[in-house]
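Z., the sequence and structure:
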Amino acid sequence: MKTRRQAKILELILLKPIDTQEELLSALKESGFDVTQATISRDIKELRLIKTLDSDGHYRYSTGHHDFNGISSKFHSIFVDSVLSIDYANNITVIKCFPGMAQAACAALDSMKWDGVVGTLAGEDTIIIIARSEEHSIQLTTDLKKLISSR
């Protein structure tokens, strides 16, 4: 449960500006997580989240650093720990994940900004990636398989 909650926190701060623990608490509750302020505080500390100034001049929670092809080590860990299999057909790559983990893994994937990716779509346990060409899909699938083989 802790891993799923922390993955959701990372997904939420990536998708929208969250600048207070109260906003994060509310967003988590809207996502179905029953948490307390103390839990949020511990998660922020464990995830080493910091407040950074965004382009609009507002402070928001962020991971603060990028160290693996533009992805924080926590996102890398979430992606690797969430994925079960990766395959492709033509220009579509399909990633199967543990139930409930596809959206967090997709947020991690999106933060990597892969060349040749037109877009991604995540469900409960599956991510669909549309690539510009079959060659891009093959390369992406190969690279992602290498990434998850580092488990």
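The chain has a mean pLDDT of 85. The radius of gyration is 16 Å.

Let me know what you think.
H.
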